[in-house]
Design brief:
Length: 195
């Protein structure tokens, strides 16, 4: 069983990698922060000394970067012709006013590129490998903040909501249609973290 995890360097991505390793799965994780990714790899190897845990530098907002990630995953896992699990976990928070400064616009564009573009790029790139396996599942992670545009004047979630929600809505239907004849499930995990 091979699981691909985006944003596996910290937080929930790392926890997903640890859970996969403890179940004996091979893991291919990517992140933009390779120090964090290496630490996840170290932890996973201590959980599963014989498992294959590979780390990859990838910015999910770039299609080219995701394509290189996919090619590297295939190579690192013995020319794997398929994968079983795709966790679209990498995500960032951000937003700002449409009437705001250029910085607001830059933050909006970046949040949208990662939270929407990341899911889109990874689904497109990894789909052939998912449908090539006997059993597969795509899991998208979003905060409940994906459901609303703002939780108050001091805290804008506009871009996050649009990115996270749209990535789910816009990818789920075409994916479900594409996968109708395949053993591949789609799930959305919508989580709330309590501090
Ligand atoms: N933090 C929360 O309260 C919360 C709650 C619910 C859901 N979420 C969602 O869960 C997911 C994980 O959240 P988290 O709290 O563990 O976040 P986190 O910031 O701890 O981890 C996200 C990881 O993704 C990586 N990352 C960021 N941009 C990337 C990119 N362009 N390409 C590849 N990797 C990238 C980061 O380096 C980091 O390692 C996100 O999608 C987030 O929106 C977060």
């Amino acid at each position: 069983m091979l699981g691909v995890v985006t944003g596996g360097g910290t937080g929930m991505g790392r926890a997903i990698c640890e859970a996969l390793a403890s179940e004996g799965c091979s893991v291919a994780l990517c992140d933009v922060d390779m120090e964090a990714a290496a630490e996840t790899q170290r932890i996973c190897r201590s959980i599963s000394p014989t498992g294959t845990i590979s780390t990859h530098s990838c910015d999910v907002s770039s299609e080219e970067s995701v394509e290189s990630f996919r090619d590297a995953v295939v190579k690192a896992h013995g020319d794997a012709g398929s994968i079983n699990l795709l966790f679209n976990n990498a995500g960032i928070a951000g937003g700002g006013s449409f009437l705001g400064s250029i910085e607001d616009r830059t933050k909006w564009d970046k949040t949208f590129a990662v939270d929407w573009g990341g899911v889109y790029n990874c689904c497109r790139c990894f789909l052939p490998l998912l449908v090539a396996s006997e059993q597969a599942c795509v899991l998208n992670t979003s905060s409940v903040n994906g459901f609303w545009a703002t939780v108050g004047a001091a805290s804008m979630h506009t871009a996050y909501s649009a990115g996270a929600m749209l990535s789910d809505v816009s990818t789920c239907l075409p994916l479900a249609t594409a996968l109708i004849h395949h053993q591949c499930d789609l799930s959305r995990s919508c989580t709330v973290r309590h501090s």
